[in-house]
Write a structure and sequence with these properties.
Layout lengths: L21 H13 L4 E7 L3 H7 L7 H6 L2 H5 L13 H22 L1 H8 L4 E7 L6 E3 L1
Parallel strand pairs: 1-2
Antiparallel strand pairs: 2-3
Helix pairs in contact: 5-6
Amino acid sequence: MVLDQGIGDMFSARVAGNVLDDEILGSMEFACKVSGAKLIAVIGHSNCGAIKGALDNVELGNLTGLLAHIKPAIDQIPADIQPRNSKNHELVDKVAEANVRLVMKQIRERSPVLREMLDKGQIELVGGMYDLSTGEVHFY
C-alpha cells in the first residue's frame, strides 16, 4: 500500500535514489498523456541507502552510474555541513530532499510532453519526503 492506494489505483515507477532516466520519464509520459494520470509525486525518504551510497562514493557495477546521478544534489548542500558521509543523518536527509527537488526540475527540462501538460495545468508535479520513523509524507 502506498498513500492508501492499491494495485491499479496509481502508476508507480520506483528506482533507487529517485534518479531520472529515459525509462522512468517514458513511464510518466505514458501515465499522464495516455492513461490520464493527473499528478506526478516525486517522493524521497529519510535514511535513504542510495543517498548514503552516493555520499560514501560507493562503486559497484551498475550502481556506480546510478549513484552518479545523485552527486549534483550533494553539491547543492552547503559545505559547512560536516561530516560529508553517510554517518551524518542530517546531511543524508538534506541531500535526499535536494535530490527530490532536482528530479522535479529535470522532469520539466527533459520531457517536453510533461512540461507542456504542466504549463497547461493538465497535470501537477509535487515533491515530498517520507519519514521512515513516523510513516508521514511531508509535501512541499
